């Protein structure tokens, strides 16, 4: 089965530093998402992306966050100045044009110290 | 009221048991409903979509009650490998996002 791949699997950073989380969605998919899950809490929607622009974002996705699809295959999430509370597992997901099924990557565990 | 509400559990059952999970959602206009499974510190994986008429996939049966805004998942003949967290997921109308419940943890013991 095709996969969404995410790198790195773990990222440790200092508070205030910028991080970029990378994702390669499934090749023929058109809709891309970032979700996060703080340890012990539910999976939370951050942002959806379609046709090279943000289609929807949550309250969590403030000015410190941005997404980009720089080259037609990668989909990145940037956090400009990380805070302790940004520590979480970040999941990338994608889906095809005619399907409701969301495919998730295995996640990047971000730890902000 | 939370958008999607689930009993966190854990539900402890012996192998072979039948177990049922419930979920309620707040937006009555929601159109799409799903059960996802999540293993510890792994990504969510789609278990099954939930249709108005109810649907079955092997040992798993999902039901939707729109009038009560209630979704259920029944697992028959539980296996050790069914131990996981089961996430109730709803797609609110007009939105592309999925809204996840907090999940119900299932532990199946020998």
Helix vs. strand class of chain B: mainly beta
Q: Tell me the radius of gyration of chain B.
A: 13 Å
Give the helix/strand class of chain A. mainly beta
Could you list the spans of chain B in which at least 5 consecutive residues all have pLDDT below 50?
none
Compute the number of helices of chain B.
0
Q: Could you list the spans of chain A in which at least 5 consecutive residues all have pLDDT below 50?
A: none
What does the secondary structure layout of this molecule look like, with pairings?
The complex is a heterodimer of chains A (113) and B (110).
Chain A: E1 5-7, E2 10-13, E3 19-24, E4 31-37, E5 43-50, E6 53-57, E7 65-68, E8 75-79, E9 88-95, E10 103-104, E11 108-112
Parallel strand pairs in A: 2-11
Antiparallel strand pairs in A: 1-3, 3-8, 4-5, 4-9, 5-6, 7-8, 9-10, 9-11
Chain B: E1 4-6, E2 11-14, E3 19-25, E4 32-38, E5 45-50, E6 55-57, E7 60-65, E8 70-75, E9 84-91, E10 99-100, E11 104-109
Parallel strand pairs in B: 2-11
Antiparallel strand pairs in B: 1-3, 3-8, 4-5, 4-9, 6-7, 7-8, 9-10, 9-11
